[in-house]
Design goal:
Blueprint (H helix, E strand, L loop, with lengths): L4 E2 L13 H10 L4 E7 L12 H16 L4 E9 L11 H5 L3 E5 L9 H12 L7 H18 L4 E2 L10 H11 L2 E5 L7 H9 L4 E4 L12 H9 L15
Parallel strand pairs: 1-2, 2-3, 3-4, 4-5, 5-6, 6-7
Helix pairs in contact: 5-6, 6-7
Length: 245
């Protein structure tokens, strides 16, 4: 399976190690026809952008680079953090409307919106010491992500289940209902084959992304090809796959 785009990568505006221009040049070098930047939201502790307005600055920078690089279509996106059990995000709604795509993910170390969010995130850490919390934590993670999918226009969910377990069938059904893609994250090599197989059973479409933090890993999507083909998922269900003739 071949891919024409990579839409989840980070720059030095968050925890990436390169400039916007350097990531764009990497996309050209590896032969992609489209790339999208998606830096972390501002509530991601130690790794997020300074504030939501940074995403609009990135979009403006990409617009200038687009004029110089007509061979590569550039998109300005974001990887927003879920910051409450009600599915709230850490990016302002007016900023989201100005972006080309929205990726949403669960991350364990974010500033929550409220006390309920603080308890939820704390329990994700405490479950390592108190395994009896496992079921409740999984239910809360699932609720938060499903609420976000229904509340916002989410193009894809990033590495679902990584470090914060979710109920795959329930999240997959929400994705299918809302036309939200399930990300295959090749940087983390996640989800696993069995998880892809389970999600696919519930009708989701997929999006393969590198989650690149360095120019060298832009477009490195081989794991996505391997796991999708092993799970028997055809190109027609992969948003950035080159379609079979």
């Amino acid at each position: 399976m071949q891919f024409n785009g990579d839409y989840h990568m980070h720059t030095a505006y968050s925890d990436g190690r390169a400039t916007v221009r350097e990531m764009v040049m990497a996309g050209l070098d590896c032969g992609l026809s489209e790339i999208g930047l998606a830096d972390h939201g501002p509530n991601n502790i130690g790794t997020g952008v300074k504030n939501s307005q940074v995403f609009l600055a990135i979009k403006e920078e990409l617009a200038h680079l687009q004029v110089e690089n007509s061979a590569l279509q550039l998109y300005a996106g974001a990887e927003a953090d879920v910051v409450s059990l009600a599915g709230d995000l850490d990016i302002e709604a007016k900023v989201i409307k100005g972006l080309d795509h929205l990726i949403v993910g669960l991350h364990p170390f974010v500033w929550p919106k409220d006390t309920g969010g603080l308890i939820w995130l704390a329990e994700n850490q405490l479950v390592k010491l108190f395994p009896t919390l496992k079921s409740r934590v999984k239910n809360d993670n699932t609720k938060a992500l499903v609420e976000a999918i229904h509340k916002h226009d989410v193009w894809a969910i990033s590495h679902p289940g990584l470090k914060m377990p979710v109920d795959i069938p329930e999240v997959a059904r929400a994705c299918a209902a809302r036309n939200t893609a399930w990300e295959i994250n090749t940087g983390h090599k996640y989800p696993t084959y069995h998880e892809v197989l389970e999600a696919a059973h519930h009708g989701v479409n997929f999006l393969v992304n590198s989650d690149a933090h360095y120019p060298e890993t832009v477009g490195c999507l081989e794991y996505g090809s391997w796991v999708l083909e092993k799970a028997g998922v055809g190109t027609e269900r992969v948003l950035n796959a080159v379609q079979d003739c």
